[in-house]
Amino acid sequence: MLDHNTTLSIFAKLDALAGGLFLLSAFGMVAMRQVLAYLNLFALQSVLLASSAFVLGYQYESNHLIAVAGITLVVKAVLITWLLRRTIDREVYARREISQALNIPSSLLIAMVLTIIVYFVSSPLLSFASDPTIKFNLPIGMAGLLIGAYVVTVRREAVPQVIGILSMENGAFFAGISIASSLPLIAELAAAFDVLIIALVMGLLTRRIHERVGTTAVGKMVSLREE
Amino acid sequence: MVDRIVFNIIQVLVVMTFAPLIKGVLNKLKEIIQSKRGPSIFQPYRDLWKLFHKDEVVSEQSSWIFRVTPYIVFVTPIFVTLLIPVLTGYPLFFAFMGDMLGGGFILALGGFFATLAAVDTANPYGPVGASRTRMVGFLAEPVFMIVFFTVSFIAGSTIPYIVQKQWVTPLANFFDPSHILLMLAFLMLIIAESGRIPVDNPSGHFELAMIDESKGLEYSGRAAALMKWGGAMKFFVLLCIFLNVLVTPWGLAQTEALSDVLLAIPLILVKMFGFILVLVVIESSLAKLRLFRITEFLGAAFITSMAAMITRLLEM
C-alpha cells in the first residue's frame, strides 16, 4: 500500500486531484437545480479539464497538451458560457426549480452506480496502461461521459440538456488527453471549434423554442406541430 | 507513562475550557458580518455561570432518563477527547482504548440520550425536534461510515493518531484527490451534525423550525448549563477531529516536553479560528434549507465521500 506513494509523483497527484474534482462536478450537474448554477458548474468543469491537460502537458513536456489546455480554457470556459448566456433569454437563467424525471437523491445514486460500472468496465483496460495518469483520466472521463448522457436523458429543460451534451464532450476529452496525447493539434482545434458551433446552434435553437413556445421545457413537447 | 496520563488530562481540560470560547467567537464573527456589534466572545462563559447559579425545575412527568441525560451529554465528548489528538502528535495513554468508530459511537450515545430525554417530557416541541435530529442523523450515518472506512482504508488504521500522519508523509499525499474529497464530505458532515446553517439555524428562536435546539428546551438551571457546555464540547471535539486528523495535522506537539504540549494549545486555537472564519462565511452566504432538502445536502455529502473512495480505488 505504501508503494504507490513513491511511484506517484506530485504531478500525477495534481492530475488525480483535477480528476476527482471533475468527477464531483459531474455529480454536481446531476444535483443542480438552477440553470445559472448549471452553467457555472460547466465552466468550472472545463477549467478542471484544462488544468488536467496543463498538468499532463507540463509533466510530459508536451507543448501540444498545453495548447490543448489553452484552447479548452478559452473556448469552453469562456466562449461557450458567454455564448449560452447571450443567446438564451435571461428569464431562463432566473428560474430556480427546474424539473427532472427523477428526484435528485435517486438521480445521484444512479450516477453513483454508473461510476461504479465504469470502474469495473475500465479496470481490465487499465491493466495494459503503463502510465499512472491514464488510470485516473480514462475512467473519470468515461464516468463524465456517462453522467452527461444521464443528465441529458433525465432533464426536461433545453438548457440543461445542452450543457449535459457539452459535459459529455468534456468527459470524452478528459479521457482523450491521457490516452491519445499525440493527436495532431489540428484535430483538437477542429474539435474545439465544432463544439463552439454546436453550442451556438443549440443555443439559438433554444432561443427560438423559447420565443415560439414561451418555455424551454422540451420534455413536455410531444408533437412536432401544434394544430 | 505518568507524563502521558497528565497530557491526556491537559487535553480534557483544554477542551472543557476553550469549547465555550469557540462558540463565543463564532457568534461574534457572525454578528460582525451582519454589521452588528454582537455579544462579547466571553458571553457563553457568563451564560454557563448564570445557569449554574439558577434553580432547576424538573417536570414531575419525566423519568430518570431526563435527569441523567445532561451528565451523559456532558461526559461523552470528554471520553472522545481521550481518544483523539488534540494537542500531541503521538498516541497518549488512552489512545488505543478506541478508534474513530468508537469515538463516533460514544458521541452518538450522547445524541441518543438527548433524543430520549426530549421525548421523555410531555413538551410538544421536544419530540418534533428529536425526530428531526434523528432524520438528519440517519442520513448522516452512511456518510460517516464511508468517510471513516475510506480514511482507514487509505491510512491502514482506524486510530486517529496514525491516520493523521498519513496525509503529510510525504507532503504530496496532502493533494491526494481522495483526501481533498474526504475533507469536503467531512465539512458537510460537521455542518449537519452540529446544526449549522444550511441544515439548521442555531440562533433561531422559532420552535416549529428548530431541529437541534428544541431538544434542550425543557432543561433549566444546572442541567441546561451542562447541556450547553456538552454541546459546545461536542463541536470542539468534532473540529479537533476534522482539523487535527484530516485537514491540518501540523502544529501538534511532537516531543514529550511539557512546553511543547502547552505551545500546541495556542496553535490549535489559531487553526480553529481559521476554520471558524470559513464556517462563518458559509453560514452567512447560504440560506437555511427546507427540511426535506436536507436529504439532498447529505446526499451530496454521501456522493462526495463515495467519489473519494472511487478515486482511491483508481489509484491502486
- Tally of individual domains of chain B: 1
Largest pleated sheet of chain A? none
In terms of quaternary structure, the protein is: heterodimer
Strand % of chain B is under 5%
Mean pLDDT of chain A: 84
Distance between the termini of chain B: 39 Å
The gross shape of chain A turns out to be globular
Which regions of chain A are unreliable across 5 or more consecutive residues at pLDDT < 50? 1-7
Estimated share of beta-strand residues of chain A: under 5%
Poorly predicted residue ranges of chain B: none
Major protein interface: A-B, 31 and 27 residues
Count of spatially separate domains of chain A: 1
Number of helices of chain A: 9
State mean pLDDT of chain B (0 to 100 scale). 88
Give the C-alpha Rg of chain B: 19 Å
Q: H/E order of the elements of chain B?
A: HHHHHHHHHH
Name the descriptors:
heterodimer; A: 227 residues; mainly alpha; 9 helices; 79% helix; disordered N terminus; B: 316 residues; 10 helices
Notes on the structure:
The complex is a heterodimer of chains A (227) and B (316). By secondary structure, chain A is an all-alpha fold. Chain A has one domain. Chain A has nine helices and no strands. The N terminus of chain A is likely disordered. With 316 residues, chain B is an all-alpha fold. Chain B has one domain. The longest helix of chain B has 32 residues. Chain B is globular and about 55 Å long. At the A-B interface, helix 2, helix 6 and helix 7 of A face helix 7 and helix 10 of B.
Offer a quick outline of the entry:
Chain A has 9 helices and no strands. By secondary structure, chain A is mainly alpha-helical.
Describe the secondary-structure layout.
The complex is a heterodimer of chains A (227) and B (316).
Chain A lengths: L2 H5 L2 H22 L3 H25 L3 H25 L2 H5 L9 H23 L5 H23 L3 H22 L5 H29 L14
Chain B lengths: L1 H32 L9 H10 L11 H20 L16 H21 L4 H31 L4 H7 L10 H17 L27 H27 L10 H28 L8 H22 L1
Helix pairs in contact in B: 1-8, 1-9, 2-8, 3-4, 3-8, 4-5, 5-6, 5-7, 5-10, 6-8, 7-8, 7-10, 8-9
